Fold this sequence. Notes:
Cofactor: FAD
Keywords: FAD, Flavoprotein, Isomerase
Protein name: UDP-galactopyranose mutase
Organism: Desulfopila aestuarii DSM 18488
Domain UDP-galactopyranose mutase C-terminal: 154-357
CATH class of the domain at 3-41 and 210-254 and 324-379: Alpha Beta
Number of helices: 12
Strand content: 15-25%
Order of helices and strands: EHEEEEHEEHHHHEHEHEHEEEEEHEHH
Number of strands: 16
Distance between the termini: 25 Å
Mean pLDDT: 94
Largest sheet: 7 strands, mixed
Bound molecules: flavin-adenine dinucleotide
Radius of gyration: 23 Å
Oligomer: single chain
Amino acid sequence: xxxxxxxxxxxxxxxxxxxxxxxxxxxxxxxxxxxxxxxxxxxxxxxxxxxxxxxxxxxxxxxxxxxxxxxxxxxxxxxxxxxxxxxxxxxxxxxxxxxxxxxxxxxxxxxxxxxxxxxxxxxxxxxxxxxxxxxxxxxxxxxxxxxxxxxxxxxxxxxxxxxxxxxxxxxxxxxxxxxxxxxxxxxxxxxxxxxxxxxxxxxxxxxxxxxxxxxxxxxxxxxxxxxxxxxxxxxxxxxxxxxxxxxxxxxxxxxxxxxxxxxxxxxxxxxxxxxxxxxxxxxxxxxxxxxxxxxxxxxxxxxxxxxxxxxxxxxxxxxxxxxxxxxxxxxxxxxxxxxxxxxxxxxxxxxxxxxxxxxxxxxxxxxxxxxxxxxxxxxxx
Length: 381
Ligand SMILES: Cc1cc2nc3c(=O)[nH]c(=O)nc-3n(C[C@H](O)[C@H](O)[C@H](O)COP(=O)(O)OP(=O)(O)OC[C@H]3O[C@@H](n4cnc5c(N)ncnc54)[C@H](O)[C@@H]3O)c2cc1C
């Protein structure tokens, strides 16, 4: 199948591009060509087996599937079963472990008290009143106005400095619209109806999604290296970075990135949980992942385990992870949106095309929506 023979070109074999390709081929028997610059399917959801230990890990950070959207849950179930994993996060501060997000257990252990749920708000109100911040001007003030200084200093300040390489005083309030905290002992990280880890890993999902004979995937292929060969008006679903499509003509959208450092440790269980945050600024990494805990149903080695330290940094353009939701970038994005309107045959989509943090269930939801409302009408006369 050549470029000219394809009904659709899809840039990116991540969850967005793969959902669109799967729908077009399976619903309408259309020819789809996917161009993916990496050497694997799955985009940032990709999982692979660590050679030395045999433990499956998520190459771009731990991914837990969670949703309350029944359509999305039914859709993803066509390609995988989920194990019974449910996500819980702990954080280490000054050699003590606390539950995250902040809940009654966190507050009681931190203050050495035994509050009941109905006493928490009044207790925190006393801390908050000490600084009386009515109109928070930056992230530090916002956090203190919601939690009080002691909890802010322990759990927000150092972690935020490590994430952003900036003091919370120098970050806008818009970065943090709310601080999730619970007045009960609920330790379930997500509020969603369903969650889990794909039993056979994420990579297997993408193999199944893209198995239709009319879907052709070209790995190690940068869209921009073949862009000139495309017939005019080819319909393109573009899930790459929107600013790159326009050769950064207005400037680069900024991202934060992550760096991961693997280590094999000669114990069966290093930290007893899949993700442990480190709240203090003096610990250079933000979290440690221990992927064996994502698959409690598997037989993993008893004499060794894999841990992955996560470091946060500003992106140099090579590995965009988290968009920066500040005024400067929002204004820049609007300029690219205006440019995008001049290309009605190109659908800018996914986390890179929309410059938006999207969870996996939102990515699928958006892709199914684009398929139904924008792509189907193109050929459903
Ligand atoms: C650290 C981290 C942890 C996360 N954890 C969770 C979680 O626990 N649960 C959850 O629901 N979601 C999580 N997410 C979100 C999840 O990763 C996204 O929802 C999902 O990856 C979005 O899919 P996508 O297809 O839009 O983007 P991507 O996965 O980034 O796919 C885009 C693809 O396009 C390719 N591409 C880009 N430009 C070009 C080009 N020029 N030519 C060819 N190919 C190109 C890229 O190589 C990439 O493979 C997390 C995200 C991050 C950053």
